# Entry
Amino acid sequence: MLVLIVGFTAVVLLLIAVVTDVSAVFLARRALTAQADGAAVAAAQAIDEEAFYTGAASPDRLPLDRTAARRAAGEYLAGARIGGGPVLLRSLTAIDGRVTVTVAGEARPPFRRFLAGTAVPLTAIAAADSPLG
# Structure
């Protein structure tokens, strides 16, 4: 009977550890997705001011400045941290008023550290359209 109780306790503790780790990765992924969304929106608001004010831009679409968009996304992500590590801007594309951002980060599940000792790499992709785009 004692062996059964010890075995059942070990299984329950293992299930708690697995559920805790999976939840930590899920929450880190959601946080990374939120950071990607914010960076995409910040980048989509970086219009090409020269083209806008000189009238060279189309009246139904705001022109994007790719350099300003990358800078805006980088500034948005400057203090962002997921799982204790930084959120990195992997790529940014701006085509026809649509900005697509790819960010990367790491999840550090509490119990995985004891078993594998490594973080779980995460990537998120988000897109945003510029106003009037």
User: Anything to note?
Assistant: Residues 2-129 form one domain. The chain is about 50% helix and 25% strand.
